[in-house]
Amino acid sequence: MVLTPAQRILRALVAWAVVMLFAFPIYYWITVSIKLGRDIFAIPPKIFSFETSAKSYEEVFGISLGFEKGIAVLPGGGDFYMAPRLMDSIIIAVFSTAVAVLVATLAAYALSRMRFRGQHHFVFWILSTRMMPPVAVAIPMFFIYKDFGLLDTYTGIVLVHALMNMPLAVLLLKSFFDDIPKEIDEAALIDGASRFLIFRKLVLPMALGGIAATAVLCFIFSWTEFLFALTLTQTSLKTVPVVSSTFVTSTGTAWGNMAALGTAAMLPAFVFILLVQKNLVRGLTLGSVKQ
Amino acid sequence: MVTRALKGPRFMVSDHPLPWLLPLIVILVVFALYPFFYNIFLSFHEFAPRKRALVPVGFENWQKLFADPRMWSAFYVTLFYTGVCLTIQLVLGMAIALLIDSDDRGFGFLRGVMTLTLVIPPAVTGMMFLLMQDSQFGLISWTLQSLGVLSPATPILATSSLAIWGVILADVWQWTPFMVLIFIAGLRSLPRDPFESAMIDGASAWQIFRRITLPMMSKVIAIAVLIRGIDLFRMFDYVFVMTSGGPGTATYTLSLYAWQQTFSFIKWGYGATLSLFALFVILIAANLFVKIFKVRW
Amino acid sequence: MRESDRKLFLASVTDRYVRGELSRRNFLQAAGKLGLGAGALGLTATLPFGARQGFFNSAAAAEISPDADMMAWLKDVAKPFAGQTIRLATESTPPSNAINQHLKPFFEEATGINVEIEVLPLEQVLQKLTLDVASGLGTYDLYYLDQSWMASFSGDVIDPREKYAASSALAMPNYNFDDFLKPLVDGISMYEDTMVGVPYDIPIFIYMYRKDVYDELGLKVATTMDEFLANAQAIQKAKGPDIYGTTGQMKSGHYSLECDWTAWLWGHGGSVFGPDSKFSGNDDAGLAAMEYWVKLKENMPPGVTSWTWDGQGQSVGQGIAGQVLSWGEFFPSWDNPESSRVSGLMEAAVPPAPKALRTVGETGFGEIPGVGHQGGSSLAVSKYSKSQDAAWLFAQWATSADTQVFITTLGGGTGPTRTSVYDDARVKANAKPGIPGTTRHLNVVRDTIDNHMGSEPDLPEWAELSNDTIPVELGRFFAGEYDNPKAAMDSIADKVNKIVAG
């Protein structure tokens, strides 16, 4: 769309306003993580000026940022060395995303390029595997995992998260593959290239933007998943959502700590998103068929 | 020809889709089909607390289900919630996607920030909004009360008519960016030519959106609606954290009800029945959607 | 040792070293066992932890030196179990956090038993236990049992007294079951004739008020229900809406609402069940309680209907409530100047006397009426555990008088379950105002346990009734969906009786 300079400025202003509105609760949440306990509840709310403290971070990560630290009983599960827990989340999210995207890319390519009987129903069946309420999946999974020794393991959670993301990944990727003209494949086939080679050398690079978007979503769903990560683990790994919930204690919620972990946990995910989003470039398919 | 360079091992030359689909099928059969049948089995059994074992109960759970006013109330709440959230997120998501899909300076940053809401676990989002909507200490409540829109006597999350909107606010805040992200990816994968020719023909922005963008995006929109609709129908975290389904049963969803029956009351059979009911409802709804909007895969 | 446990242990060792309780030699020895040399610890440069004394109750914490005899006995008797791992899922309560963060390493060091503690919110503990029990898989060796679940899990645990008598080799000397406060044993550990677990923690309703507000308005500590209401009204009139008369935990559909309800119900001579095992909250006493509660609510912040104990505690801590009848556990956090605006301003008293009080015989399902509603918990050894002996050793250690002293001084607030702990000099030394880990309310807690305690009925359906049926309908009532208390209570009676009848 061609916009006049005035329109462009207006658009930028509106865009900034809307995005900042969405970002505001996050800003507010960050301020909670650096406020003193008593200021979190101050009325009128202290939004921009308040006494800051790194205490919540020190407690959550068991580090000293140069402030005083004594022995203290902290809320939040006792494992106040959260850095390894963040690592747990990163490992699980990265690997489950990799598994989901890998398996889904293969399947989506086939679904996009090959026709077989009952294909429509097959795709709908894939979609339907996401429809079961998580509670109903968690219990049978608990039993299978117990039998296969997958309970409380990285592999177990990686697999269940990959499964959970499969319908989304397959459907999205298929729609992105569909956008790439089939004529490319056909031309290459006639030239004698194998399907796999076409997939790897021609289609995959063109679908990179779509794959990136899919990976971001898979990562996000795994990063924030709660019920499976809770039910299928015990003590050897804990993801961020599970740890966050432990700040709800019998004597009240440790808001500062919860916000500190939440803020710190935003970073790895945000970095991942930024890295992957670089591939979200416009018009990768542009003109590739016409030449 | 570019393809000349592509001669290689004739691996997977055949056009049979099975090798490509096999990993997916294996994963789905093990992890998705088994739980489904297990729940069907459970729905004809109930956990006997004293015996610590499952005993068969025939169709009792199913009869109970259809006669359970709590279930119907949860069903309507879930439907209402799903409908409202989906509509808002779809429209708002598309509008924002069009707004920030620009290559001008700063927009890449804006798109990144927009996705930030998604990386917060929903249970934590629930806590955030619980805090912000607290009638005594909450930022949102305080603002609305200062503006005279909200009476202090009606706490958002504890007033029957308002509570669901409090929960919807959290959901819309967190998940509209999901729509934005999908739509932007969709917009970016569209070929440019039709737009260029339309502009040369002097079509208005609305015409281009209505006649070109929307139809070409239809598949992506369908996926977004389906995935989001399914997730909304299963929504659990927000109500669990923010309202416990209250006041009364005003925000009790099917998923919360199933969770509670399963884990709080150890009624695995009835919990499974509720889950299956929810599954069937989504199945029917999704099927209708696919038929009506003629989605073909 | 798992990575996280290793770090935890290292942290504890380091902390002790920093405070000079541990010689450099011992410290390096311990660290060496963990595979860390002096270089890795940064000993040559600066320590990883600030070397100054903390603002927390470090004076008390610095003295974590477990009873030498007990540790020696543990070391000796645990030899066959060294290397075993025991698991416990528990609510995030002060005692559990104190054990997990600071005390556990001492037990592990002495016994060689690995202890893995999962700390979760209450509902999730129930979820984990449910799966474990229903599958009989023994993924947990120890259960943290809230008193309201006692009946549900009574068949899945080992009676600690029987265990104590049966395996004399593993019976901790001087463990002394009689040291546990008698009402607690009845209220949180007994189901019918079996002892389900050992009393572990006791949050209980006490009466807490703002001394400054009372002094300013010339109010006296209420001794009756009517005085309590009158005080609330007086504060509300003089100070509202900056300071409300009282506050509550009245979130619809949440267990906390049921807790508040029982206190007023019992305080008006009512009971949840009659001797005929039928719901009796809709009788005259029950309706009088509702009428009182409604009047009291007029003096609470409007937000109470969206608050659990979390919001309630916050409202007092933020200084917007003049008095409250609630969990004594809150008290120390209100004395913490970092998180509270009322540090040093609160005082505790026993709950106001009930208008009338039913006897246990006049109620059903072992309900014990009393204004001091208790929310205690016990620690039980799972019947399905494969390391029952190791688990039993841990349970004894965790509930021993010595360990409870450290829990109390570290965690503060938590009510010890043993008489001797209340009398312990180390606990009494912390009874100072304005410090985070204060124990100055514990005399009131003890008095309340002995003389004013109320306990919920024990029946397998209680989890459903107390977490759902009752608080959902009460929530409806306070949201204005019922015309009058009678209609609400009759509706609850209908539903409860149906569920109890099966």
TrEMBL record, chain A:
<protein>
    <submittedName>
        <fullName>Carbohydrate ABC transporter permease</fullName>
    </submittedName>
</protein>
<dbReference type="InterPro" id="IPR035906">
    <property type="entry name" value="MetI-like_sf"/>
</dbReference>
<keyword id="KW-1003">Cell membrane</keyword>
<keyword id="KW-1133">Transmembrane helix</keyword>
<comment type="similarity">
    <text>Belongs to the binding-protein-dependent transport system permease family.</text>
</comment>
<keyword id="KW-0813">Transport</keyword>
<feature type="transmembrane region" description="Helical">
    <location>
        <begin position="12"/>
        <end position="30"/>
    </location>
</feature>
<dbReference type="Pfam" id="PF00528">
    <property type="entry name" value="BPD_transp_1"/>
</dbReference>
<dbReference type="InterPro" id="IPR000515">
    <property type="entry name" value="MetI-like"/>
</dbReference>
<dbReference type="InterPro" id="IPR050901">
    <property type="entry name" value="BP-dep_ABC_trans_perm"/>
</dbReference>
<feature type="transmembrane region" description="Helical">
    <location>
        <begin position="123"/>
        <end position="145"/>
    </location>
</feature>
<keyword id="KW-0812">Transmembrane</keyword>
<feature type="transmembrane region" description="Helical">
    <location>
        <begin position="151"/>
        <end position="173"/>
    </location>
</feature>
<keyword id="KW-0472">Membrane</keyword>
<feature type="transmembrane region" description="Helical">
    <location>
        <begin position="202"/>
        <end position="223"/>
    </location>
</feature>
<dbReference type="GO" id="GO:0005886">
    <property type="term" value="C:plasma membrane"/>
</dbReference>
<dbReference type="GO" id="GO:0055085">
    <property type="term" value="P:transmembrane transport"/>
</dbReference>
<feature type="transmembrane region" description="Helical">
    <location>
        <begin position="254"/>
        <end position="276"/>
    </location>
</feature>
<feature type="domain" description="ABC transmembrane type-1">
    <location>
        <begin position="86"/>
        <end position="276"/>
    </location>
</feature>
<feature type="transmembrane region" description="Helical">
    <location>
        <begin position="90"/>
        <end position="111"/>
    </location>
</feature>
From TrEMBL, chain C:
<dbReference type="Pfam" id="PF01547">
    <property type="entry name" value="SBP_bac_1"/>
</dbReference>
<protein>
    <submittedName>
        <fullName>Extracellular solute-binding protein</fullName>
    </submittedName>
</protein>
<dbReference type="InterPro" id="IPR019546">
    <property type="entry name" value="TAT_signal_bac_arc"/>
</dbReference>
<dbReference type="InterPro" id="IPR006059">
    <property type="entry name" value="SBP"/>
</dbReference>
<dbReference type="GO" id="GO:0042597">
    <property type="term" value="C:periplasmic space"/>
</dbReference>
<dbReference type="InterPro" id="IPR050490">
    <property type="entry name" value="Bact_solute-bd_prot1"/>
</dbReference>
<dbReference type="InterPro" id="IPR006311">
    <property type="entry name" value="TAT_signal"/>
</dbReference>
<comment type="similarity">
    <text>Belongs to the bacterial solute-binding protein 1 family.</text>
</comment>
